[in-house]
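Reposting from the mailing list since nobody answered there.

I have sequence plus structure tokens for a pair of proteins and want to know whether others read the tokens the same way I do. The first protein:
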Amino acid sequence: MGNVESVKDISSGVGTSDGVSSSENIDATDEADVLSAPESLVRRLEKPVEPVELRDGLRQVLLDGGDWREGFTDDICLGVWLWSRWQPVLEPAGCSREQFVDVVISTHRELWLWLLGDRRWEQYVSGLAGRVARRLPAPTA
């Protein structure tokens, strides 16, 4: 029963029986065990520096009347650019390039806000990382 209470205390953030808060009982190596699979994956994804030239090029294409749905699978696509950086983490977790690009396409509103400067890059890319992680297949036991 003591082990169950310890896990419950750690996950709820309640102090443990020794009076030390649960966050002080978790060292860096144990933290990944407490995180959910999506949270753990998000932490492993590199948050790349904003691709300013790519942003400016995509924004200009859209402002010139280009169809936002075209170009999401070619080499000037933000999804393809990010896939080249996130593939080593996402592919072993069960996410294909096509699935990833589909998630990027599903964020078209947030992508548009970033392209126009109404959303910061950090906001967009961290939101995308969370959405990708939540859409991964459930881990098999």
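The second protein, same order (residues first, tokens after):
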Amino acid sequence: MSDESETNQDDIDKMFDEGGDDTSSGGADGGAAGGGSLNLSEIEAAEGADQTPQQNYAVGEPMASDVSAIYDIPVQISAVLGRSTMQVSQLLKLGRGAVVELDRKVGEAIDIYVNNRLVARGEVVVVEDKLGVTMTEIVKSDRS
């Protein structure tokens, strides 16, 4: 099972990385015949008219039939309250009840990572007897 999830995770990472300049699919010139970049109409013309047209979705219409294959892929979510650095000697002196000072202030947003990629910031909340996180800001990532 772990081999299957690793393969699926690799597929997700490739999907995220394809958002940047992808020169792996068409040689050193990025697939452009003249070595330059193509605009959308040139790409559509180069792909040919014999392909089936993409389905257009109405605003708010779910695309469940297209993305349902990725729903069962596990991802790791981490909420980072803050960070601290210390020497090993200081670490070894820590005992029960020791307080480690973090680089964040009370009430400051925490970072939310999905598969070690910063995706959002949020606030810590209490849900019944457990801690939770409310997302307050989605972070736009530079995928290049």
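Reply #1 (J.P.):
I read it the same way you do. Confidence is low (pLDDT under 50) at residues 1-5, 20-35.
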